Amino acid sequence: MELRNLELFVHLSQSLHFGRTADAMAVSPSTLSRAIQRLEQEVGCELLVRDNRSVALTPAGQQLQQFAEGWLAEWQQLRDQLRHNDGPLQGRLRLFCSVTASYFLLPDILARFRTRYPQLELRLETGDPALAIDKVLNEETDLAIAARPDALPAKLEFIRLQTVPLVFIAPRIPCLANELLQQSPADWSRIPVILPEQGVARKRTNQWFRNKGINPHVYAEVAGNEAIVGMVALGCGVALVPAAVIRHSPMADKIQRLAVTPDLKPFEVGVCLLKRRLDDPLIRAFHQIALQQANPESP
């Protein structure tokens, strides 16, 4: 029985989704399917019941899940001890962050990390920051740079790196949004608004409009702040985005900030991970670097 096949099975038994497990474990769906088939051949029975819409564990699958989780945990602990005793820390970490975070937060942390642990490998995935927390909770990544939600799940550790303001932005070019904004007072119920699909910025935008008693005219819902800035620059509407995204956007000269009341509550951006994974030496190493980045005066 191959170790890798067991690892794939354990992740799949938790996610119950072939696509998510394939992405998280960096294999193709066909490779994942073959690994499960080989396990079923080895144990001589069906481990999963699957159709086009769902995946469920059979009783045998539940038994193997319990065995494999315990065995893999013991193997991980032994491997970590051997690595620690035998020389420099080695292995691979998966990190998820937005494109903008990879510009303005990640370089300093990685510089410290690579200097101290040159033999550790980092697998970086960039994407919509609204997905970061769920990716950590679902163990699709080991660590993430994320916006702290208003209600942080108890199982998560969060290290604040920066506090980032949220700002409304509008296009500089003549367009419908600017025509409506120039009216006094501006009719926000008619101004096209571009919203993030989910995440902290979406919740803050919704709350701002609720506080104003406005039912906004939603032009589009978009995944990723960088794409939102691009749409605003093209004249599609106005949007609420983190100020850091504007500072690092090639479209910054094509948008303008709007002065609005009430002021928008900023949010915290930092490193997020599962608390229970702090026993992993690789996770703990990155955690220590993040703490030093957050508190540069600490030893």
UniProtKB/TrEMBL annotation:
One Pfam family from the record: LysR_substrate
Keyword Transcription regulation: yes
Alphabetical UniProt keywords: DNA-binding, Transcription, Transcription regulation
Species classification: Bacteria, Pseudomonadati, Pseudomonadota, Gammaproteobacteria, Aeromonadales
Location of the HTH lysR-type domain: 1-58
Molecular function, one GO term: DNA-binding transcription factor activity
Family: Belongs to the LysR transcriptional regulatory family.
Entry protein name: HTH-type transcriptional activator IlvY
Organism for this UniProt entry: Oceanimonas pelagia
